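Hi Y.,

Following your request, here is the sequence exactly as I used it, all 418 residues.
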Amino acid sequence: MTKPASAAAPLAEPSPSFFSDSTTLAGKLTEAYLAVRNETERRATPLSPEDQLVQSMPDASPAKWHRAHTTWFFEQFLLGEHCPGYTPYHPDYAFLFNSYYVSAGPRHARTERGLLTRPGAEEVTAYRKHVDAAVVKFFHEADEKTLERLVPLLEVGFNHEQQHQELMLTDILHAFAQNPIPPAFDPDWRFPASARSGDEWVTLNEGIHTIGHAGDSFHFDNEKPPHRALVGPVKLARNLVTNGEWLEFIEDGGYGTATLWLMDGFAAAGNEGWQAPGHWRKVDGEWRIMTLGGLRPIDPAAPVCHVSYYEADAFARWAGRHLPTEMEWEVAARADGLNDAFGIVWQWTRSAYAPYPGYRAIEGALGEYNGKFMVNQLVLRGSSLATPEGHSRVTYRNFFYPHHRWQFTGLRLADYGA
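Below is the corresponding structure, written out as tokens. Let me know if you'd prefer a different format.
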């Protein structure tokens, strides 16, 4: 099979358009829609029906649920609201495959998605084909003005599905990592090469910079409004922290040194028995890591991944440094000063996930997409090896709780001097 997308996406804003050079808007939308939908199926191809059912922890979801939920999104918000006469494929699917859209109605508990033995993977495939056919038919029957009005909704739908494409890989990797006989998603998979060049540090002098997305190209609502922020003086590490550096942290007793940790982090590490990053395990006295290609030896030169915010913060303190703010990261990335800013690991920042000054969620059910989560989480910047091509941009704000580490999450350091 073709490898999961792993190349770093272009840095420049805006991100590449979904839309082709087809002569009609209906043609452009059809090609964009099917390209996104086909990528989801490509990622699901190596998975057996049993693989697609498993839910290895409450934070993860079964692969078939991801496939069905992204289908429900288009059925609910596009066909259900804008296609006259459309009848839902199955009367129970809205309940089963809604995620957190309270405005869209009741939903099955997230923690129990792995109990949904039915519909099976083949039935989910039939559901996807039915909705895909209805969407394409709608594109070619709707008038141009209607389609123009729906482009913003469709762009959200495309990007929403891309987010679930990434989750499909991180969630199945977590599930495979629980298997005593570690399977491979793709036996030929390789960790993407890291670029290490230039000076060790990128210096940002004190200055006022515009942070956030400017212009009308696609962005999520949490990336706006653009605003001015004081940044610097600070130095950001040009390179990501590596496995070799993390091994030094482990060997120096980093996981057992309470003074390096936030109180909640040290409690989490103790309660969960953390002695190394997620998906690391010792085999015959040597550390190995569970990857999409199966269980592999640790590469000391590769960027460390599957670390929580708590671990990243403790490491930074052990190294005598800090984690950067998301504003510092954005300014440095805009200047093209960071190696591996995209395409390997999401990078933790020390910025709380909070609204930008003047932020307002969009109206309607889609307003529940980002704004309702703006508390108790931390911002990550960049993108990972599992992020679909074209989905990253310099203003993108990913966010997770500080104990989360099943994603491809890593870090780079910041130095504020004496």
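Residues 224 and 267 are 35 Å apart (CA to CA).

Thanks again,
Q.
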